[in-house]
Amino acid sequence: MRRDSSTPAGTVHRLWIESDVLKSNMLGDPTRRIIDVYVPHDRDGRGLPLLVDIVGFTAGGPAHTNWKNFGENVPERLDRLIAAEEMPPVVVALPDCFTKLGGNQYINSAAMGRWDDFLLQEAVPLVERTYGCGGAGKRGIFGKSSGGYGAMVHALMHPDFWSAAASHSGDMGHELCHLPEFPGVLRALKKHNNDIKAWLEDFFAQKKTKNNDIHILMMLAMCASYDPDPDAYMGVRLPVDMQTCEMIPERWANFMKWDPVVMAETMWQGLKKLKGLYIDCGDVDQYNLVYGARRMHRLLEGHGVAHVYEEFADDHSSVDYRMDVSLPFLAKALAG
């Protein structure tokens, strides 16, 4: 909801893309995808930096362009920040990366699809060709939760592609944020004779989804993201024993190699190429993500990697207001 109706409004354009790289996904997800693109008022996008908004679990990019009660959507927030000269103008792309398992970690997976390739090889090039924005040295990525994870991992893996990144409450410290969820997963699966396929088919058939079930689905999506099994239904296999919940070392190792803190131990040097890196987390995050964020902050400080780290007095939910900090940070870094 616009705070000031007199603020000049940018334009949200809608692109459609037919993806080649997503055709191999095991979920049967559509390969034709929406990319909403925000262009500031009185600009056509040419020469402006490009930011890519990757959203959290259960959402897709177009959710951030929808009308929002008691608050601003992302275009309205950008209008306000740009009009107040708190940030220079930027183009922002908001791609639909939703999956049947409820979300995305924005990495390549034999089960979930090649979402890393989708962003780098298809979505970003299309936006840049269409609006004349971005390009080398002028691309940034940001997101919250799973999107914050994706932003951090993309910064680690592709510092020659992205020049700035912001991770809000991103998944880090997998043994703290993911491993504690598996007892609940096992209790849910027990009601379906420990059959993952039966549980998922029952979930898809529900007329009303339950919040607890969304958490189970999220963990199955993590399994399909970090340790997919090409022979399993939707690629899902668990990293724990179904009877005792004991960690299966080789399975859990695949989870941990995708933990941003673990990745940063050997990939931190690439982050020094970035023009800006921003990390924040609520100090009472209910998924324990603040501890992973603190680990990342300490590791980066130890290696002399320039970054901004902030903790704020809140939990994991409804923290879009933090974009008032990250968006100006990213825009200024890329405009410099």
Give the number of domains. 2
- Major β-sheet, in short? 8 strands, mixed
What would you report as the Rg, rounded to the nearest angstrom? 20 Å
Global outline: globular
Query: Which sequence of SSEs, written as H and E, runs from N to C?
Result: EEEHEEEHEHEHHHHHHEHEH
| Measured distance between first and last alpha carbons | 31 Å
CATH architecture of the largest domain: 3-Layer(aba) Sandwich
**Could you give the order of strands across the largest sheet?**
1-2-4-3-7-8-9-10
- Give me the number of helical elements: 11
Uncertain spans: none
Q: Would you tell me the structural class of the helices and strands? A: alpha/beta
Q: What is the typical, i.e. mean, pLDDT?
A: 97
The percent range for strand residues is 15-25%
- In CATH terms, the superfamily of the largest domain is Alpha/Beta hydrolase fold, catalytic domain
CATH class of the largest domain: Alpha Beta
Helix content: 25-40%
Short overview:
The protein is of the alpha/beta class. Helices cover 37% and strands 16% of the residues.
List the helices and strands and how they pair.
Blueprint: E1 11-18, E2 32-39, E3 50-54, H1 74-83, E4 91-95, E5 108-109, E6 113-114, H2 115-131, E7 139-144, H3 146-157, E8 164-168, H4 174-177, H5 182-190, H6 196-205, H7 211-226, H8 249-256, H9 260-271, E9 276-282, H10 289-302, E10 308-312, H11 323-335
Parallel strand pairs: 3-4, 3-7, 7-8, 8-9, 9-10
Antiparallel strand pairs: 1-2, 2-4, 5-6
Helix pairs in contact: 3-9, 5-7, 9-10
